[in-house]
Amino acid sequence: MAIALLKRMEDQRMWLTVYTYTILIDGLYKGGRLDNAQEVFQDLLTKGCHLNVHVLTAMINGLCKQTLLDDALALK
Description:
- This is Pentatricopeptide repeat-containing protein.
- There is one protein chain.
- The chain has one domain.
- 74% of the residues lie in helices and 0% in strands.
- The protein has helices at 2-11, 18-30, 34-47, 53-65, 69-74.
- It is globular and about 35 Å long.
């Protein structure tokens, strides 16, 4: 549902900030949707968005909770 809402917002050309994506990534991890969270993060990278400490913290938190420590360490 959250991914569908994000796509709809993008289709309507709403201005989404990195904070919007951070909340989405954090919620996806907390909901056990690791693949979706990583997909959203990759979209951010592809779009060339400036990643701040908050989005990186959400990613690292989610990866560590899934015991994917190597993936968390690989984030740069």
